[in-house]
Amino acid sequence: MTNTQQQEGLLFGFDFGTKRIGVAIGESVNKTARPLAILPVKNGVPAWESLEKLINKWKPYQLIVGLPLNMDGTEQALTSKARTFAESLHLRYHLPVQLIDERLTTKDARERLFEKGGYKALQSGQVDAIAAQLILQNWFAEHK
Q1: So what's the pLDDT on residue 106?
Q2: Dihedral angle of Cα 109, 62, 69, 49, to the nearest 10 degrees
Q3: What is the Cβ-side half-sphere exposure of residue 126, based on CA atoms within 13 angstroms?
Q4: What is the DSSP letter of 18?
Q5: What are the CA-CA distances from residue 24 to residues 20, 40, 57, 113 (Å)?
Q6: In the chain, at which end, N or C, are there fewer CB atoms within 10 A of the end residue's CB?
């Protein structure tokens, strides 16, 4: 499921959740990332059609999925669901998928939003997409 070969181009980052999945897009040359979309999850099923449209439009060469872990590094209930999501991405789109520790990304995303616009900004629904952006930025930092 992983491909360690360095390429140039676009990547997608995902903040997996049981209600929403944040999506970010990143550029491997200048190592930048930005929030792209928030996909709904209904009855445990991601909005695959919406994701397919994003993949067809942007054509990322690799997908990075945040792996939710407890603060001590152990797995939690959501960890196996995120792994299953990552495997589904690979099987559906035939793209390399890598998992990365996502501890504290949602907390950091909330703090960033709050700093920009207070409680109103937190309610904008952008937390998941910003968390996905942070996941990609962390991946870039680890793969210099």
Answers
A1: 65
A2: 80
A3: 21
A4: S
A5: 13, 15, 14, 16
A6: C
Distance CA(108)–CA(114), nearest Å, equals 10
The pTM for the full model equals 0.84
Please tell me whether residue 11 adopts helix, strand or coil conformation: strand
Distances (CA, A) of 27 to 34, 71, 83, 128: 9, 29, 24, 19
Helices vs strands, H then E, count in the chain: 4, 6
- What gap in Å lies between CA 135 and CA 116, rounded to an integer? 20
Strand (E) or helix (H) holding 70 = none
Average pLDDT, the chain: 86
Q: Which two tokens stand for residue 18?
A: 């049981």
What is residue 81's predicted lDDT score, i.e. its pLDDT? 95
Query: pLDDT under 70 in the chain at which residues?
Result: 1-6, 103-125
